[in-house]
Amino acid sequence: MFISLQVMGQEKKEINTEDYENYSVDMADEMRSNGKIYVLVGVIGIVMGGILVYLIGTDKKLSRLEKEFRN
Questions:
Q1: What is residue 35's DSSP assignment?
Q2: Predicted TM-score of the model (pTM)
Q3: Alpha-carbon span 20 to 48, nearest angstrom
Q4: Torsion sign across C-alpha atoms 55, 57, 61, 63
Q5: Does residue 62 contact residue 53 with C-beta atoms inside 8 Å?
Q6: Contact at 8 Å (CB) between 31 and 40?
């Protein structure tokens, strides 16, 4: 059974010119039209900002501990 699945998974598929002309992303277009894409970008920005603040705080604490260890 496993051999037959491998063989089926390696079938060649013909590439047409239509495959290169498909530039639309339906999900992104719908989210943009509803205004939800801005909420998504905002949430991603907040998460990235939180990670950045956490890393900066950890770096400051580590620098302080290194300075104490040297003295």
A1: T
A2: 0.57
A3: 33
A4: positive
A5: no
A6: yes
The predicted-structure confidence for 39-51, as pLDDT tens digits, reads as follows 999 999 999 999 9
What distance in Å separates the CA atoms of residue 68 and residue 70, rounded to the nearest whole number?
6
Residue 53, token pair as written in the block: 């603040």
* DSSP secondary structure of 42-54: HHHHHHHHHHHHH
Residue 8, SS3 per DSSP: helix
If residue 24 lies in a helix (H) or strand (E), which one and from where to where?
Answer: none
Cα distance from N-terminal residue to C-terminal residue, the chain = 67
Burial of 58 (0-12, 13-18, 19+ CB in 10 A): exposed
